[in-house]
Amino acid sequence: MKNISIEERAVMLARYIIDTKDTVRGAAKQFGISKSTVHKDVSQRLMKINMPLFLEVRKILDENKAERHIRGGMATKLKYTEQKNKVS
């Protein structure tokens, strides 16, 4: 990731998120950069570089944001189910 421009990185991140429907956190882990960098690239920089791509990735990020409370609840349920099974 060091030998590419910021603009190229923003486009790569956007295409990855669109193709995989991954979260900002997942994209950051995949590319080995911080969540803040991914978020800034796809929400601010990409708007100036490629508006159609920005709008496409924005839809996915909005879906992920709308679903995060559900994923959080499922993770909590799994955590306590595993703890209960260890005690039994």
Q: Could you list some keywords that capture this structure?
A:
88 residues, mainly alpha
Helices and strands in order, then pairings?
Elements: H1 6-20, H2 24-31, H3 35-49, H4 51-87
Helix pairs in contact: 1-3, 1-4, 2-3, 3-4
Write up what this structure looks like.
This protein has 88 residues and is mainly alpha-helical. The chain has one domain (6-87). 85% of the residues lie in helices and 0% in strands. It contains 4 helices and no strands. The radius of gyration is 16 Å and the shape is elongated.
Helix % is over 70%
Q: Low-confidence segments, ≥5 residues, pLDDT <50?
A: none
* Morphology: elongated
The sequence of SSEs as H and E is HHHH
Domain count, please report it: 1
Number of strands: 0
* C-alpha-based Rg, rounded: 16 Å
Question: What's the average pLDDT?
Answer: 90
Q: What can be said about the biggest beta sheet? A: none
Give the amount of beta strand, in percent.
Answer: under 5%
Per DSSP, the total helix count is 4
Structural class: mainly alpha
What is the terminal-to-terminal distance?
47 Å
Brief write-up:
The chain has 88 residues and is mostly helical. It has 4 helices and no strands.
